[in-house]
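Slide 14.
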Amino acid sequence: MIQVWQLDQLESETLAKIMRRAEADIRSLLPLAQEVSDRVRNEGDAAVIEYARKFDTDVFEHSMLRATAADFEAARLSVSPEIISAIEQAHANIQRFHEEQMPEPMWFTEVQPGVMAGEKITPVASAGLYVPRGKGAFPSVMLMLATPAKVANVPKIVVVTPPTADGRADAASLVAAEICGVDEVYVVGGIQAVAALAFGTETIPRVSKIIGPGNAYVSAAKRFLFGTVDVGLPAGPSESIILTDEHVDPRLAALDLLVEAEHGPDSAAILVTHSREVADSVQQVLPDYIAELPEWRQRFVTKVLSNYGGIMLTNSLDESIDFVNAYAPEHLEVLTEEPFVSLQKIKNAGEILLGSMTPIPTANYNLGLNAILPTGGFARSFSSVSIHDFLKRSGIGYLSREGYASLQAVTATLADYEGFPAHAMAIRKRNEIIGL
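Slide 15: predicted structure.
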């Protein structure tokens, strides 16, 4: 049964649950994240393999920990040409978009005569990419992570991805990695995978940064290991808002409401509208659409639409947009009569998809935008995965004698005021040494 709320009549406790979505689940898993992380740090591969057997598949062996050249070859042979072609086409669009993001490798500006300031852009030394699996396989996530990492020229790219029931990596994901030019893939997922990347083991290397989405377990691991390693943007359970006015075709709104809801029971999917007619029509068509899904996806959708998701009724389009900005969704579809007008008022969303011809699935796969987005309200301050996640900036300065002379007195004055005598001495005695 899909939940329907009236925003201005919601109890504060219910509203808080909607806004928090899976945050309570993540916090409850922090003790487990600490336990697993501590064991991986102290025991290395042995702990990783033990947890893989416990949480993923009991057939897992040490020899399965890294995907081999033979695994890549077998994957290429087992995946249909149609799927390989789709992966290649998606990769081309994603690569083109991210190439456009690349900044100049170095720039300078003359702040005043003889005073040069700028930046040098370099890739991070190593990146660990977390590609989830869950009940399905996600070669699209491999593309969204590995493509910008390669375009950014990261020297060492390491992938972790959970094993299938037979202890192997998903074949299509291996094909996607190969198309991106990545060959270091470790078949491990969950908390133990994040901890292995953070600390390093006998087999899995430690990395500078970990990027990639995951379930509540992965999010808890990142939360716990923040400070040990750069864990990138918060990308947890999937979520979406479908924003509509009275002009939307309710069939389209209903279809798109199911997209993120089918990811898992901890996802969130909300239709936000001020039209009671649209809400009623969506409720009428949803059961038939849900019935067309596989039974296990039906369970996910039903859980989501009765837990963190549903229909939110407001009194106006402006009130709907205010709710969107407060919620800060991962995915936002704008199905209003004038989506570009609505766009001007939207401030917080991981991605904003405009109009009925730009559904979330297309953006997830091959529009070119990166579909790894901040969740849990973090779209208020985080952005989607991009080239910039794999780059760092170093400030560069240069002073000519003229430039130094023009700044030295102010520098010493400020150093005196802040109580740093060595700072001031470095300036005043330098003046004596260089004869200024």
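Speaker note: The mean pLDDT is 95.
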